[in-house]
Amino acid sequence: MYVVVQGDPSDIDRFSNDILKLAPPASRIKSIDVFPSIVGEYDRFTVTASREINDHVTEISPDIAVCGQCLEDMSSDPGRIDYPFINCTNCGPRFTIIKGLPYDRPLTTMSGFSMCPKCRREYNDIDDRRFHAQPIACNSCGPSCRLTDGRAVITDLREILVKTSAIIDGGGSVALKGVGGYHLACDALNNDAVVRLRQVKKRDMKPFAVMFRDLAALKEYCHTDFSEEKELLSWIRPVVLLRSKRSLARQVSNGLMTTGAFLPFMPFHYLLFRHLKTPVMVLTSGNISEEPVIKDDGEAMDKLLKTADALVSYNRDISNRADDSVIMVTKPGIIVIRRSRGYVPRPVDLAFDAEGILALGAEQKNTFSIGRKNQAIISQYTGDLKNAGVFNFYKESIENFSSLFRFTPRYIAHDLHPDYYSALYASFLSEKYDIPSVAVQHQHAHIASCLAEHCLDEMVAGVCLDGTGFGSDGNAWGGEFMIADTGSFERYCHFDYVPMPGGDRVVYEPWRMAFSFLYKYLGDSFDYDSLEVFRRTGIQKLALVNEMLKKNINSPLSSGAGRLFDAVSALTGLCYETSFDSEAPMRLESAIKHNCDGCYPFSITETVIFADMFLGILDDLMNKADISEISARFHNTIVQVIVEVAERIRSSRGIGKVVLSGGVFQNRYLLERTFEKLEKKGFRVYTNHQVPVNDGGISLGQTAVASKHFGLCV
Ligand code: ZN
Ligand code: ZN
Ligand code: FE
User: Fold this and answer.
1) Can you name the CATH fold of 145-314?
2) Which ligand is nearest to the CA of 74?
3) CATH class of this structure's domain 344-441+694-709
4) Sequence ranges of the chain with CATH classification 3.90.870.10
5) Angular region, 533: left φ>0, alpha ψ -120 to 50, beta rest
6) Are 449 and 359 in contact (CB under 8 A)?
7) Distance from the CA of 703 to the center of ligand 3, in angstroms?
8) C-beta of residue 586 within 8 angstroms of C-beta of residue 253
9) Which-ligand-closest: CA of 113?
10) pLDDT tens per residue, range 412-470
């Protein structure tokens, strides 16, 4: 952006300082370059129309929660009393309404609404809070809401609010059109309502996010500290994972000790809570099963209204889909679990050139990334590419991002796994554009994502703990200690290989991993019937799995840390079979009641062997030790393994920087304790804060590796 300023040098100085000091909360000023120039005389301030400059990349703002001043205007500005689409220069939808650049009203989904004289005056008035606010609107000229229950349609806002709150307070569910897609809402204190909502969504038992009326209501149910409150109230308004204080309806969190909570971010939410009796509602993505969140009104009518009691919509299209973002505030900093609304499409600044790199990500929790100069623009969370709807959304979004950011792919980076849809799509694109591609090993990409975020390019001790990733030897990796930079990696040490009897089925049936670990370390000599987990499983299933392991049928090898957590979770009786992704490790972490220091023995050669740890756990189980203590000791063991391997790497290679990445580090206890212990030993420790530690961060890591691989300049 160019600003021409005329005046005394001291005034100009003050002006450029004020730009930084008084910047709106959602703005991001990277640097200000001041240089003298000879221009004509100006006697007033003007903003000229945006010029299209071909190769110039314009940053697009993420969506911003409604601001405090607009909320005040909702009760004082005559044209905007209770107006649910109120916004200003500092707030309102952005990315989700943009169809093209430059970001001016005609290229947004507001283009169909022509401004009334009052809005136009404010839009053009430099002293107005809505000066050049592209989505400016009011009661007489902007979008409006409608409610339908499939029979009648209500268009009066007050009636809509009364009806919606009556349904929710009465135990029903409502589909609400949000910023980046539809939500499904019901009373979070009414268990029957929550159970019914799960049926609407055809959703497993995964915890639901809940929206509280305000911070005071939230604090009745969740523990918060200062930094968590800051994030809850920030303009991004993410879902923040908090420690539960008082329980909501049982089926909201399904026995986990955490609550995914957020606060109102659309004017409509505030208006609705004025009418609602309940202080908290489940507000979950409006989608069926694993499909992308629904953003189009027709599809919402078809799919959501079948089972929800009513649908509240509005007559402005959502151009770009964006789910709610999910974060966690830990001692080392913010951990982003899902990066979407409020974050996307804000770029990640890089210390290297990434121009032309299209990185296609992994498979689950997928994102892709496009490289423009020394920035990576990472897509919103798309989902699991195995789902046909998600895969289509992914392909469309690649097209969208390419045209929005005037991006032409020159290089392609993809996961090493030959069967991932993203990798298959990579070979299609590489042929279509006749451009080179590079396959990036999965865990190396995790480590590289963290290196890229922290602008590090040197050999580090990379600790990647995750579920699975295709290894260079063809096995499933996931408990990896690497000596790596962005250019290459050496697999220094890894968790013991253990067969996964039944392949991918182990993910849903963690008891299989419990059996596999014990069978590997104890063989036939152990009395499996002495353990509750195997008595529950039943003799027939056990015999079958035993046979698979003996004859090596459909039992691929895995070093995945996720599998080890699965095994221990099943063994301790916390989770035999899963009903949602990562349930077993989440229940294991949730079982820890208080910190304790003990850990189990293990041994490290070129692999980390857990035989002694399992013997220790079995002993504890026989002695009826507290499950909370077993879980804490198990977690401490993993921390101790990380510390010992890091020390070996430091003493043999002189490397003192440790990078932690991979989905297992979404475990707060593990992450915080690992940081603490490593820092106590004098290591510099890094993890991801801008992109997820889970597979949502893979595309950034692939970008870094590709830049090195293709020799792009620094
Ligand atoms: Zn505002
Ligand atoms: Zn107006
Ligand atoms: Fe991974």
Assistant:
1) DHBP synthase (3.90.870)
2) 1
3) alpha beta
4) 145-314
5) alpha
6) no
7) 15
8) no
9) 2
10) 999 999 999 999 999 999 999 999 999 999 999 999 999 999 999 999 999 999 999 99
